[in-house]
Amino acid sequence: MVARLRCPVCAQPLAAATDTRALRCPRRHSFDLARQGYVTLLAGRAPHLGDTAEMVAARADFLAAGHYDVISSALAEAATSALATPTGPAGADGPERAGFGAYPLVVEAGAGTGRHLAAVLSAWPDAVGLALDVAKPALRRAARAHPRAAAALADTWQRLPLADRSVAVLLDVFAPRNGEEFHRVLHPAGVLLVVTPTDAHLAELVDVLGLLQVDPAKADRVADSLAGRFTPAHTAVHTARLTLDRAEVGTLVGMGPSAWHTDPARLAAAIAALPTPVTVTASVRLTTWRPR
Questions:
Q1: What separation in angstroms does the CA of 96 have from each of 80, 84, 123, 258, 264?
Q2: Domains of the chain
Q3: Do residues 289 and 231 make contact, with C-beta atoms less than 8 angstroms apart?
Q4: Burial of residue 173, with CB atoms counted within 10 A of its CB: 0-12 exposed, 13-18 middle, 19 or more buried
Q5: 159-210 pLDDT, tens per residue?
Q6: Considering only CA atoms, which of 155, 252, 251 is closest in space to residue 201?
Q7: What is the pTM of this model?
Q8: What digits encode the pLDDT tens for the residues 139-148?
Q9: Pairing with 231, which of 65, 257, 269, 277 sits 20 to 30 Å away (CA)?
Q10: CA distance 138 to 128
């Protein structure tokens, strides 16, 4: 894993220091390993802090209840299917023959708690994983998401702390997309898996709770961000009907972008007025992109 990391300052290879708990490059740039298990790989300070501890805790609770397992399962299936080769299935000798090496790397950008990354690693026993996020509360959880996963604090909009062509599978779930950097780090035989909400996602709650609406041009904006560097290979919509109580609705809202834009008192009153149980649609679009 460490051999595929790069210094965010000078892009030189990183290695574990022998005299301290840190990663260090040949030019002596050093990056300490936090006691919670993640490493900060930033050139300077992050321009933003990402999700709050409360948002991350809400997400951890909601995902642990299995409500978004439809997304995790779709990603695991798409990753193993996309990397199947004539020489063998993903997880056997196929990825190694494709040039990924004995331990293919799966990276999730904007990984949050790392639950989706863990699902892919569980489906692909020979792979190792790296969760990238700018929020320290998320990384504390992502570092423990799976025995074969590590975590690093990194900003998706900056140069990613990874070697060229070092990533077999790159996951992007409801996260920003840096097309140039994604293309640089992804192996030519690898895949980028992007998950975005459809206009049906959480539609039952949007108006009644005053939540942010999905941009009607979302699919076009995703394509524009990857244009010229990636080609869409497959797209599928995955849908699940969620049955939630009022507390779970509050958790769902609290873990997403609407948490930044919703008045807490007004939201609590609107949730209290909901009939229970609350039936909500989870609907996402998963697109497999291959690098050009």
A1: 13, 11, 16, 42, 50
A2: 2-291 (3.40.50.150)
A3: yes
A4: buried
A5: 999 999 999 999 999 999 999 999 999 999 999 999 999 999 999 999 999 8
A6: 252
A7: 0.92
A8: 999 999 999 9
A9: 257
A10: 19
